[in-house]
Design brief:
209 residues; alpha/beta; Rossmann fold; five-stranded antiparallel β-sheet; five-stranded parallel β-sheet; 10 strands; 20% strand; binds adenosine-5'-triphosphate
Length: 209
Amino acid sequence: MLLQTSSLSFSHPGQSPIQFPDIHLNSGDSLLILGKSGSGKTTLLNLLSGLLRPLTGEVILDGKSLSKLSSHELDEFRGKKIGIVFQKPHLISALNVKENLQLVPYFSKEKAQNLDQLLIDLGIGGKAKSSVLTLSEGEAQRVSIARALAVSPKLILADEPTSSLDDEHAEKVIQLLKSQSEKIGAALVIVTHDQRVKNHISNFIEVKA
Ligand SMILES: Nc1ncnc2c1ncn2[C@@H]1O[C@H](COP(=O)(O)OP(=O)(O)OP(=O)(O)O)[C@@H](O)[C@H]1O
C-alpha cells in the first residue's frame, strides 16, 4: 500500500471538525476527491502532503507516518515523495520553462528524470527555452505538471488542475496526468468539480462538511 489514511479529521480555527473518509491507494492508482465548495477537499490535500497536521488519525505514505516526522523532515520528505499541481501554475517568471523544472531536483536533492523527454511527452518539447511569460494557459499548466513529475514522486496531488482550461486542454491535461503518473508508478489524487475529469477516473471519495 502506497498511501493509507485512517480516521483523519481536521479543525480550522473557529470551525467544527471535518471528518474525512479513509484512503487506500497503490502505485499507479487514481482517486478523485469530490465534495461541495467549502466541504474540505483542499484541507484533505493539505493533510495528505503534510502541510497541515490532522486533529485525529494518520497519513502513511510509502511506509512513513507523516505525524512522526519533524517539520524539517516533512519538508524533505514532501520534496522527494510528493508532486503537487495547483489550480494555477505558479511558475517563476524570471526563469524559462526548463529552468523552472530544474529547481525541483535542485531543492529536493533528488535525481531528475529526463526533463527534455518529459516536456516532449507533455507536448511542449519545443518550449524548453521559452520564457514562461510567453506560454498559453494550457501550456503553463502542462509545465506545472512536468514540474510535479520532475523527480518521479510517489504521489501526485492536483487541486482543480483543469478548472481554467478549455475542453481540448482539459482533456489533454487529465490524460497526461494519468499516463505520466502510471508511467512513473505514482498514485494520483485529484480534487475536482470537473465532469471532464470524472469521465476519465471512476474511483472517488466524497468529502462532506
Ligand atoms: N485557513 C483557514 N482558516 C479558517 N478556516 C478555513 C481556512 N481554510 C479553510 N477554511 C474553511 O474550512 C472549510 C474547508 O475549506 P477547503 O478549502 O478545504 O474546502 P474545499 O472543499 O476545498 O472548497 P472549494 O471547493 O471551494 O475550494 C471551509 O469552510 C473554509 O472556509
